[in-house]
């Protein structure tokens, strides 16, 4: 908080005498805190062309795909994206399609592919795999 605002708040506080005035200030402060984001949300796609634009997803597909609703993660880390499902006959966690995808090749930087978000994709059934070895990890050469 800058010095001028701090001084203004102190002066207001000195002028308050009734419990009602103090309660009103507390209400306003609580309301302001509720509107503030204490942690900035991270958006993986900030400053990047998102996957749905790069592969020209139609709106009907995009509206069901979890990539757009979970912008903090890249699409290859989300179970049940459209690309990992039906049209390729894949399971929803099989990331082999990601290895050859232009989106991963552009933004993945050759990092290991690991599903980090489960149970949010198209046709999601479970919150996470039952065994650690069920997580599909793919290393790109």
Task: Tell me about this structure.
It is elongated, with a radius of gyration of 23 Å. Strands 1-2 form a two-stranded antiparallel ribbon. Helix content is 35%, strand content 3%. The chain has 2 domains: 3-35; 51-138, no CATH class. The protein is an all-alpha fold and 141 residues long.
Please sum up the structure shown:
The protein has helices spanning 3-15, 19-35, 51-54, 59-62, 96-100, 102-107, and strands at 113-114, 137-138.
Derived structural class: mainly alpha
Count of helical regions: 6
What number of domains? Answer: 2
Kindly state the percentage of residues in helix: 25-40%
Low-confidence stretches: 126-141
What is the multimeric organization of the chains shown? single chain
Enumerate the strands of the largest sheet in spatial order, edge to edge or round the barrel: 1-2
């Amino acid at each position: 908080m800058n010095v001028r605002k701090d001084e203004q708040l102190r002066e207001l506080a000195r002028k308050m005498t009734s419990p009602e005035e103090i309660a009103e200030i507390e209400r306003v402060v609580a309301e302001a805190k509720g509107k503030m984001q204490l942690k900035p949300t991270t958006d993986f796609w900030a400053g990047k062309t998102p996957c749905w634009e790069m592969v020209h997803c139609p709106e009907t597909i995009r509206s069901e795909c979890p990539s757009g609703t979970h912008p903090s993660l890249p699409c290859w880390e989300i179970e049940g994206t459209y690309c990992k499902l039906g049209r390729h006959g894949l399971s929803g966690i099989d990331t082999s399609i990601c290895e050859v995808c232009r989106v991963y090749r552009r933004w993945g930087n050759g990092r290991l592919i690991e599903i980090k978000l489960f149970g949010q994709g198209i046709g999601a059934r479970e919150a996470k795999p039952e065994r650690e070895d069920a997580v599909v990890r793919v290393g790109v050469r």
